[in-house]
Amino acid sequence: MKPPVPYPLLIAGLAVFVVALAFLSMIVGPATAGTFELFDMMAHEKADVAWMIMREVRLPRTALALLVGMTLGLAGAALQGFLRNPLADPGIVGVSPAASLGAVLALYTGLSTAIPLALPLMGILGALLCALLLHGLARRGGVLTLVLAGVAVSSLCAALMSLALNLSPNPYAAAEIMFWLMGSVTDRSMDHLLLAGPLMALGWLILAASARSLDALSLGEEAAAGLGVNLARTRTLVITGTAISVGAGTAVTGGIGFIGLVVPHILRPLVGHTPSRLLLASALGGGALLLAADILVRVVMFGSELKLGVLTALIGAPFFLWLIFRARTELES
Amino acid sequence: MRSARHMSRRPIRRLHVAALMTCLSALFTSAADAQARPQRIVSMNLCTDELLMRIVDPSRIASITYLSQQPINAPLGLDAVASKLKVNHGLAEEVLMQEPDLILAGRFTSATAVNLLRKIGYKIIVFDPESTLDDMRANIRKLGEAVGEAARAETIIADFDNRLTALQAQIPPGEKPVFADVGVNNFIAGENTLYTHVVNASGYRTLGQALGFSGFRNVPLEEILSTRPALISTATPWTSPPSMSTMALRHPALRAIVENTPQVSIPERYTTCGAPSLLGAVEILVAARKTNG
Fold first, then answer.
1. A7-332 CATH fold
2. Which residue of A has its CA nearest to B188?
3. Whole-Å CA distances, A145 to A80, A83, A96, A138, A241
């Protein structure tokens, strides 16, 4: 299918959009602190404080929103391509719930108050364990087994998180878990960025290695096998890449939904339905969407800050419904 | 011309040096002063807000949480002080802009922001939630020492204890009747909670003590109905805005008890924190004890 926009132009356009949003994200402060207050401080004698805020607060926040958004978009595109299922996203194969569960256990046991980085480390561990489990379960079965195994892992993780909330002896600790689960990049530090950044990049490389096979797979499993695609290798690449990148991202930000689901859907027609081309486009689109959402979270304040994951779901779900509705009318007409 | 310029620059340079010296010495003295007694204190927790406002002069408070300005949370008798202070919403960026020399935080509040601020190098003192009156006294002392007002902290503790003793003297003798607070989600206080210590200090036992458990627990309506409380509290600020917690209150079985039992209303803000606001709750309970025996 011929794309409506030339691919290089689309990528260049998305990249410009991402850079512009990242720039805006560095400029805009939380409404309660005065959106442009920092420039006042720079103009006057408090420049050092202003620069420190830029460096230590806004830079890691912006970088994490960008990288996590890119990770979610990329992993969503890779999973939808591999499973040939438009409903696939990192949540459905259980990776993000497993990462959340790891983090919740760090909060529940109090490990996270003792060691600040215990929370993301446990999250990453959770995602990797989930990937191992999926490998074991899906080795003999096909794509369907993988999806079903993912759904089961997801539900189990959700149940265990509820159990932690249920048994939490202290209402404050329970509230802390609940807020963490809503997802946010607020007040993350350079430590978080240095911990999750390299892992996310590693995951991207692994996912990118699956691009060719994804194109062949769009013709169906048998045709792909005829073209020399090793299905088991592709599955390993997609699951491992998703687990490492999404696991590292979720471990730092908490659950952020709908980006991995919606972004590939928006961009698929624009790349002419070519799965390999969708990967980079979705990564840039995901980065842009999460940056935009994080800027919005700062501008719209209701007493306390709105959580990023709440906002992406609030915008994502109705948008997804509209997409489905549009696709249906196109199919039926 | 050149020499004239040269001549004119000299005194100016000397003046610069003198000005610099004055500035530096001012900086050093104020730095030494700030070390002993922080002058720009930020509180990121509702409970440290109250203690801080009672212990230091408002001029030394850079900000408190926005919660302390809400009527539902306002600490007892501090509305006038709280309303004039700057607030924060637990965001690192806001706190940094307020250029604090000391940050007070709770164990469970804004953990990511607190970790970030600590990493940048700010001095942060973390307070654990209080589960006894002695915990409260210890936290008041800890905060007093942190801000260089140890004597003021002792005065506050002494005032609290005097007022408490005076109130306790009014409690009629006899066994402590059961006070049932079923306001919030049937979430009921048992042994070893601050709430129970306060209720005991006011001449009552809690429903949780009567049912014989420790900590907070969601108690089924059936168990609540199996007791015969002497006093009941149903109205809390949580009844508006509406929450699930109020559903239990509309249960017909509970209504029957509620209608036949004396009631009090203890605002949540008197029992949230281990702080002198607790006296507000003690006053209400002691008054109820005096009227109802």
1. ABC transporter involved in vitamin B12 uptake, BtuC (1.10.3470)
2. A171
3. 15, 11, 19, 6, 19
